[in-house]
Amino acid sequence: MNSAGDNDEQASGGVSNDQVLAALKVVHDSKTPNPVRKKAEEYLQQVNSNKDAPYHGYTLAADKSNSPIARHYGLWMLDDAIRHQWAEYSLEQSTALREWAISLAERVDDGDPSFIANKIAAIWVEIAKRSWVLDWMNMDELLVRLWSESIPLKNLVLTVLETLSDDIFGSEDAAAGLRETDLNKAYVQIFTPAVVLAEHFPH
Q: Is-contact 108 64, C-beta < 8 A?
């Protein structure tokens, strides 16, 4: 998996974001003949199975000159990798994914469609369920910082907290269920004053 500083052309398999963008344009053009659209869809499936798919997803989503469709597709690539390949990643690779998610969250502004901001929040939550209070120790501090910066980021933080709460307490989410005790305790600590925790959980 490439780091964020690598060039698109250096990605394995010769994949470039320009090729992905061209394929997306073909797929979403109503005038595209079905055989051509099918070829483009097959190409996108190949890209998503590439080991550097998360990197391409991040760079597609981070470039605000791309169309919302292209950015959302990039976010989907990231989300898919997190959901299905997280256990295979090294600590370095999972940390890179987390840093990309934080970077995307920090860039959310009034110009972003709500479905883009919501997808970024969903990616944040998927990573949190797998790494918060395991090797991601400052998530609550990051949320506090984002909250203080702008209205769009306040909305993103609220979405993260609401979705995380639903997945931890209100659903049968598989990823959250694997770490239910740790996530439950960490989530409660966000909202509970330290003095109350010390009184009820002295050890």
A: no
